Amino acid sequence: EQREDEVQKHEKKIWTNESILRLINLVEEFEEQFQNSIKKHIWMKISKILTTDLGTSITWQQCDTKWKGLLKIYKDIKEHNSSSGRNRKRWEYFEVMNEMLHNKPEITPVATCSNTKGLMVNEESSGTGKSTEDEENITDDKYSCDNKRKSSSTCATDFFKKKRSSIGNAVERRHQEKMQRQDDFLKCFNEYVGILRDKKNSNDE
C-alpha cells in the first residue's frame, strides 16, 4: 500500500498541466507514425522527448498508460455530452483533445446502418467540417436504403460502393482537413501553455 502511494505521488508529480499538454501535442505530431509503425517504438521516442523537455524521467509505459487514460476520459465525456437530457460535463483538456480527435472514425463512426433507420451518415466524419457541438447522425437520402428489401449488411455494402467513386476527392479533403487541424491544434496548444505560464508567473509574484 505504501508502494502504491509512492507511485501515485510520483505520477502526480510527473503529469502536470504542462507535461500532459506536451504529451497530447507529441501524440498529434507522431500521428502518422502511430498508424504505420510499432507503437512501442513511437512511445519510446515520445518519452525521450518528454524526459528531455521536462527534465524528469518518464518511461514509454507511463506515456502509453497516460494517453490511454486521457483517451478514455475524452470518449466518456464526448459520449455523455452527446446524449440528450443530461448535464454536460467539462474537462480542462477536452477542447485540446477534441481538436485532435473529433474527426477520427474510431471516435466518431463514419456511418451506421440499421433495418429500422437505414443508413445514418455522420456529416463531420464524412469531411463536411460540421462542428463537434452540432454533430449528429443524419440520414442522407442519396445513400439511404430500402429497409423492406435490404439487410444492414447489404445497406452498408451499397453505401461503400456508392462512396467509392468519390474516394480520391475524400482523401485529398481529409489531408487538407488534417493539416488545418494540426495548425489549429498548435495554435490552441501554444495559447493554453501561454495562459498557464502567465498564471504561474502571477502566483510566483
TrEMBL record:
This is Myb-like domain-containing protein. Residues 120-130 have a biased composition (Polar residues). Residues 120-152 are annotated as: Disordered. Residues 139-149 have a biased composition (Basic and acidic residues). It comes from the Eukaryota. It comes from Trachymyrmex cornetzi. Residues 7-71 form the Myb-like domain. The lineage of its organism: Eukaryota, Metazoa, Ecdysozoa, Arthropoda, Hexapoda. Transmembrane segments: none annotated. Gene3D superfamilies: Homeodomain-like.
